[in-house]
Design a protein that fits this description.
The protein has twelve helices and no strands. By secondary structure, it is an all-alpha fold. The longest helix is centred in the middle third of the chain and has 35 residues.
Length: 305
Amino acid sequence: MANVPLRQNPFDELQTRYILVAAVGCFVGIALAIVFLFQSWGLLEPQGPLFSPILMLLFYGCFGIWLLKYMQQKRILLLPLWGRSPHLWRWGMLLLLVALLLLFTLGTFLTYIGFLAWMAPPVSDGILNSTQEGILPDEFWLARLIKLVVVVVAAPVVEEIAFRGILLQRWERKWGIHMALIGSSVAFGSLHLNPIGMTMFGLVMGLLYVRTRTLAVPVACHMINNAFALFLELFSSRGVSAADATGGQLGGGFGLGLVMLAISLPLLAMFIQRSWPRHEIAMPYVHNMQQYSAPASPQRLRARS
């Protein structure tokens, strides 16, 4: 089915730079507001355990509401953007895909840090310290709970709507499906600590959205991925110190990362090759709009009566 608009495709007039400005504005505005609260009333110390989780919770809430308002302004309907949840989905395949993405992401991170530990130890020290600072002690249960809500619920929903639901379909209208998949994936990966691993993650999520025509599948995959990553962070051995990591342990980590990449990359490449869309494929929003606006078939009418 060709990717032709119903009346007018709302993604033709959408300006993606407004989304970037809104995201930066929400983040900076909320951060400044929290700092003001601390300076005025001593609430939410910037160095305290609650600062970062609450900042991210408010950011995703504020930015998510702005996205819905912007979609309404541009006449983008949420229901066809989201799509119908599949009645039957191969959850075993989804879990395998998540496992491969976790292997690839962790493999790229270990090889990257291992290489930096050899070439530029101070840089690897800084990255390791920044990751370990995000691990909250057991007594900060409220901060942990907020972080769980942000990482497992808020971030997957808002990010999938923004990157797959909006950016991917806007850039498809501008550059075509293939450049849109690559561009939205690179944009997604560039906002994360592990850009190579998360670019691959974004590409697979985009292919899942185009293939299933529903955001429910990439959102579920994103949630499972983040939940497992958070589980590893919270219940692992807290990692090694930066000083230890830059020694012999990262040498083994570099080799382990290469093994993870050797396992995951060929299988992910096979999935990408099999799922790579044709140029004339209908994008999810257009396809879903056609489905929702199509007259009901006699079988569907009999089923309702």
